Amino acid sequence: EKGGYDHFMLKEIYEQPRSVRDCMRGRIYPQQGLVQLGGIKEYTEKLKNIDRIIIVACGTSWHAGLVGEYLIEEYARVSVEVEYASEFRYRNPIITEKDLVIAISQSGETADTMAAIELAKEKGATIFGICNVVGASIPRTTHAGVYTHAGPEIGVASTKAFTAQVTVLTLMAFYIAQQRGTITQSKLVEYLTELNEIPNLVEIALKSNDHVKKIAARFKDSTNCLFLGRGSSFPVALEGALKLKEISYIHAEGYPAAEMKHGPIALIDDEMPVVFIATKHSSYEKVISNIQEVKARKGHVIAIVTEGDTDVRAMADYVIEIPQTAEAFVPLLATIPLQLLAYHIAVMRGCNVDQPRNLAKSVTVE
Ligand code: F6R
To answer: Where does the SIS domain start and stop, copy by copy (predicted)?
Structure first.
């Protein structure tokens, strides 16, 4: 059942080259620069004219939503707000018929997300779902949607469902951009060609496993851990922290790297591991200065870097390389070593990684 892996979580981490590919299958045509999302195609006209998208979700799915915010705003130039479903539904939010609400849920059964959808529906908004479980309550309630096709996820900690959600949001960002004319055809060809390679690059990212395991052995007894990133790597930092805390019970927090100086820097001492997503993209130089600030306080830096990087390598305690890709696709690769890090630390601490204490796979209570 576990296909030779010790845990479902590890099996599901290793399934990601396939699950990401399945998620894109029949939806992208790189040479033509075309994205096709059959599930939402009836709403093409609506997408041309919207001025706001609200994403509602919980937990890991909310983190995927934050990645989606960066991508949709960047490429489709529509303003996006990402809300915890549980907060949104109790706030008397301002929603109109002009709004598009995107609900993200692996299980399709999360009570708060369901309630947020019902509220938005009452106010006349159009609701799209991004779900994994086919025919679950949420996809039956939404007006339209796109399935993630990641296959059943058994491990309570979400892994392949997250990367599939991010993949769908990436496709949606380009789809909406294509409809609205906010991206050129040649750029679309370029991006989709690169996106098409991502499953292979995920495979390469998984090769960091043995190295990550050694890093895990070094930090398994930590009591705290900080995860920092900027731009779309900020939600990846949040997700890395959530994975670690939920399965290893180590207290972990994710922050935008620039916010470190506004508080979390006080926590840094010679016992504190700080995980940076420091790939060679727009905030590279800024993240390097954040790394220097941590090193000046004797913190231990573990950095996810672009392959061949030398600058971060010179100052970090440990580096984990991921393949070079466009900034838009970094979340799909940078997430992989963070999942592996959480997994190995939890196993070394003797935790039940597939069924962490107090957690359920689908949260049908509010
Ligand atoms: C974390 C995790 C949870 C879920 C959250 C939402 O690993 O699994 O945070 O992401 O309970 O669940 P869904 O996506 O089923 O609505």
So the answer is: 43-182, 215-356
Contacts of 60 (CB under 8 A, 6+ apart): 106, 158, 161, 162, 239, 242
Which stretches of the chain are DSSP H helices?
A: 8-14, 16-24, 44-49, 59-71, 85-88, 111-122, 137-141, 160-180, 185-196, 198-206, 209-219, 233-248, 284-296, 330-348
Residue nearest to atom 9 of ligand 1 (CA): 59
What ipTM score was computed for the predicted complex, to two decimals? 0.99
Angle (CA) 106-356-331 rounded to 5° is: 45
Q: Is the CB of 12 under 6 A from ligand 1?
A: no
Q: For residue 243, give the ligand 1 atom closest to its CA.
A: 7
Closest ligand 1 atom, residue 161 Cα: 14
Task: For ligand 1, say whether the CB of 105 is within 6 Å of any of its atoms.
Answer: yes
3 state SS of 321: strand
Q: What is the pTM of this model?
A: 0.98
Q: Which helix (H) or strand (E) holds 116?
A: helix 111-122
Distance between CA atoms of residues 42 and 181, nearest Å: 18
**Pocket flag, ligand 1, residue 154 (CB < 6 Å):** no
- Taking only the tens place, the pLDDT of each residue in 211-257 is 999 999 999 999 999 999 999 999 999 999 999 999 999 999 999 99
Helix (H) and strand (E) counts for the chain? Answer: 14, 12
